[in-house]
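Fold this sequence, please.
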Amino acid sequence: MRLVWPVVGLAFGTALGFAGAFGGVGAFFLVLFLGALGFLAGRAIEGDLDLSELMSSLNPGRRPR
């Protein structure tokens, strides 16, 4: 399974390249943002990312209930 992540990175880089070449800078950043959002959603679904911990680290002044 070591080959999976480099291939995923290659596919994502290719998608960013096509978005930048044919859609411009706006499309490049849109693909980048949606890719990062999809990555975080996948990590949360698999249980590798605790969203409550992430939200509490973004807002340190708020106490948990």
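Residues 25-60 form one domain. The chain has a mean pLDDT of 81.
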